[in-house]
Design brief:
By secondary structure, the protein is of the alpha+beta class. It folds into 2 domains: about 35 residues, no CATH class; about 140 residues, Aminopeptidase (3-Layer(aba) Sandwich), CATH 3.40.630.30. It is built from 6 helices and 9 strands, in the order H-E-E-H-E-H-E-E-E-H-E-H-E-H-E. It is globular. The termini are far apart. The N terminus is likely disordered.
């Protein structure tokens, strides 16, 4: 049975009368005197004014926006993303960063770095609350479209991400097939990349990937 307010719009709000109404409905009113029953009042409060669920960090994700950061914006990746990921730094002369946004919030980035003998993809990072929602794929697809149409892309992939990058047209290669300057970044562990859970990969300009228009 719905509870109907005994007040009209012309009547002022009266907290005591509200309590009387609630306790009257609960059978707690006696000769105009209300004996306070906290457990009953709380029960009625929960029934009349239920709490709204607390939103999780990933609720309210808006439209995805993916674009390349301008040179002046590169510092945003350092301050807003890479502070959580190996303290990476951007090189304005050699780096291109492709970022995913939720509204105006920067939530992910993928980097293509120019080396003397090739392009390397690295520092692909998405904030934890936004993972497994396609943001990394969207950033990578834009990177591939802009950087991988006419050039081979190289990377050192984490072992657990080989299948992900494989779906984007990358395939495993031997360490010796990496360009020298890219290979030398991991020179301290040459011949033992598996020992640090890293797999060299490359993507040729002609490699097809679903969702890519190269």
């Amino acid at each position: 049975m719905p509870i109907i307010s005994p007040y009209t719009d012309s009547e002022p709000f009266n907290e005591d009368q509200t309590l009387l109404t609630l306790y009257s409905l609960a059978g707690e009113e006696s000769r105009g005197f209300v004996t306070l029953r906290p457990h009953l009042f709380l029960a009625f409060g929960r029934a009349l004014f239920p709490k709204s669920p607390v939103p999780t960090p990933t609720e309210g994700i808006g439209a995805l926006n993916v674009r390349e950061l301008t040179p002046a914006e590169l510092v945003r990746a350092e301050k807003e993303l890479w502070v959580h990921y190996h303290q990476q730094k951007a090189d304005r002369e050699n780096d291109r960063l492709f970022a995913a946004f939720n509204g105006t919030r920067l939530i992910g980035v993928a980097r293509a770095s120019r080396h003397p003998d090739g392009l390397e993809v690295d520092a692909v990072y998405i904030l934890e609350d936004y993972r497994r929602r396609g943001f990394a794929r969207s950033a990578m697809l834009l990177l591939i479209q802009e950087c991988g149409r006419r050039e081979t892309l190289y990377m050192h992939s984490k072992i657990e991400l080989v299948d992900f990058y494989g779906s984007l047209g990358f395939h495993p290669i031997s360490e010796n097939d990496l360009p020298k300057t890219i290979r030398d970044r991991f020179g301290f562990c040459m011949g033992n990349l598996k020992g640090i859970d890293v797999c060299p990969m490359k993507r040729e300009p002609t490699d097809f990937v679903s969702g890519d228009n190269t």
